[in-house]
Amino acid sequence: MTPDPFPPIPPLSLLIGENRILCGLKARDREGVLREISDFLESRDADLAGAGLFESLMQREKLGSTALGEGFALPHCKIPDLSEPRVGVAVSSAGAVFESLDGKPTKFFFVVLGAAENPGRNLQVLASIAQLIRTTPRLGQALLRARTPRDVLEIITPGGGGRP
After folding, report:
1. What is the pLDDT of residues 36-79, one digit of tens each?
2. What are phi and psi for residue 109, nearest 5 degrees?
3. For residue 116, which of 81, 66, 88, 74 has the smallest C-alpha distance?
């Protein structure tokens, strides 16, 4: 029997973890947001320390904005030597200028740090986040009310889904 080339990914709540959630993002522009998120993630994950996250995320953004509109963005890049993708989440109550398709401030950042050797897996994670955003009513409102990383995890966990 041939192994499944696209085995299911773990739930987002397991890919994220409380240590990769930043409530109260302060930066107000794209470069500042990516710098703040990169510094935050690198300080909390030994595998990411010195990985050049900021530079990798900025390089990807130069290809085109990862802001989706409606306040959401999916910044992402590939990181050498990661065995599995990692996801960080940052929430900005004020929002940031992030070259969004709708021109509105971006408040919710799902940052995907992909395994360089497994692009298919990275795409699965991006698709999973896009589905969460698309199918969860009032997700943005719920994330704005979140005060702690635990609150954010409960919102994005199946069954917790953005309820007011």
Report:
1. 999 999 999 988 988 899 999 999 999 999 999 999 999 999 99
2. -120, 115
3. 81
pLDDT at residue 159 in the model: 60
Looking at the domain that runs over 13-134, which CATH code has it been given?
A: 3.40.930.10
80 labelled catalytic: no
Q: What is the C-alpha separation between 155 and 2, in angstroms, rounded?
A: 37
Cα–Cα distance list, 48 to 40, 112, 124, 135 (Å): 10, 12, 21, 31
Distance CA 115, CA 18 (A): 20
Whether the CB-CB separation of 18 and 45 falls below 8 Å is answered with: no
Question: Rounded CA gap, 114 and 67, in Å?
Answer: 18
Q: Which two tokens stand for residue 62?
A: 């130069």
The DSSP call for residue 29 is B
CB neighbours of residue 36 within 10 Å:
19
Token reading at 25: 């993002």
Catalytic one of 12, 51, 68, 76: 76
